[in-house]
């Protein structure tokens, strides 16, 4: 009985040492942020996947100005939805910031169609920029703890 | 400074940096400038494209921050699991 209690105390101390080591090797605030970080959300993942897939498809339709304008409006709406979806997820500041930047890129193309004739090169570059950024964001969302 | 001088500055950023993201940004900015000079894109479009490089860099920075947190989260949970196994 006494022996078992001694082993239990030793194991508890070992746990404390390991946890202390973990905390000491990492800076305090970052540890808390990392430990409490936002978990994987399938809806958020789907929203960014839809944006990426659309941008990938839409960039091949830039030769048709009418279709492309409708595509630009659709992408601007979907990136807006992503901003709104991410906005109130706790401890999600970096994704909120990234989603707003992505929305600005997409909105710029939709706005350009209302102002002037849009060149095919510009259209392709804008959709490609959204696709590339959405790809990086999708990857980081998929890597979140589950 | 002239366009050529700014392009030279971009070239120096491209050659002087070891960071692939900085190299990519410098390369892209130079590419967009060439497209503007040859009339492939309008002034409005060019300005927006250049601004998008900054926005894309901001996104990259946010993604990098999140990746660091994810690595730390994995490490912390791994250490907690090991500590639990000891019991």
Write a structural description.
The complex is a heterodimer of chains A (146) and B (87). Chain A is mainly alpha-helical and 146 residues long. Chain A has helices at 2-25, 28-35, 42-58, 65-87, 93-115, 120-142. In chain A, helix 3 (42-58) packs antiparallel against helix 4 (65-87), helix 3 (42-58) runs antiparallel to helix 6 and helix 4 runs antiparallel to helix 5. By secondary structure, chain B is mainly α. Chain B has one domain. At the A-B interface, helix 1, helix 2, helix 5 and helix 6 of A face helix 3 of B.
Layout of SSEs?
The complex is a heterodimer of chains A (146) and B (87).
Chain A: H1 2-25, H2 28-35, H3 42-58, H4 65-87, H5 93-115, H6 120-142
Chain B: H1 3-16, H2 20-37, H3 43-86
Helix pairs in contact in B: 1-2, 2-3
Specify the overall morphology of chain A: rod-shaped
Kindly state the percentage of residues in helix of chain B. Answer: over 70%
CATH domain topology of the largest domain in chain A: Four Helix Bundle (Hemerythrin (Met), subunit A)
Task: Describe the largest sheet of chain B.
Answer: none
The whole-number mean of residue pLDDT values of chain B reads 88
Classify the beta-strand content of chain B into a percent band. Answer: under 5%
Please mark out the parts of chain A with pLDDT under 50 across 5 or more consecutive residues, or reply none. Answer: none
Write a compact overview of the structure shown.
The complex is a heterodimer of chains A (146) and B (87). Chain A has 146 residues and is an all-alpha fold.
């Amino acid at each position: 009985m006494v022996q078992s209690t001694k082993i239990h105390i030793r194991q508890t101390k070992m746990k404390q040492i390991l946890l202390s080591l973990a905390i000491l090797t990492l800076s305090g605030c970052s540890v808390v942020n990392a430990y409490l970080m936002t978990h994987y959300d399938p809806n958020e993942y789907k929203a960014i996947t839809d944006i990426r897939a659309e941008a990938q498809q839409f960039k091949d339709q830039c030769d048709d100005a009418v279709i492309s304008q409708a595509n630009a409006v659709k992408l601007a709406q979907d990136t807006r939805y992503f901003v709104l979806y991410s906005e109130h997820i706790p401890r999600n500041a970096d994704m909120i910031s990234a989603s707003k930047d992505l929305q600005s890129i997409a909105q710029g193309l939709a706005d350009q169609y209302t102002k002037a004739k849009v060149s095919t090169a510009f259209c392709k570059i804008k959709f490609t920029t959204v696709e590339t950024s959405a790809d990086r964001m999708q990857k980081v969302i998929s890597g979140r703890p589950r | 400074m002239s366009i050529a001088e700014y392009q030279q500055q971009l070239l120096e950023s491209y050659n002087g940096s070891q960071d692939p993201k900085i190299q990519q940004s410098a390369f892209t900015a130079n590419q967009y400038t060439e497209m503007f000079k040859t009339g492939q894109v309008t002034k409005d479009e060019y300005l927006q494209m250049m601004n998008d490089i900054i926005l894309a860099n901001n996104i990259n920075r946010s993604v990098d921050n999140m990746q660091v947190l994810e690595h730390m989260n994995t490490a912390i949970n791994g250490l907690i699991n090991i500590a639990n196994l000891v019991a």
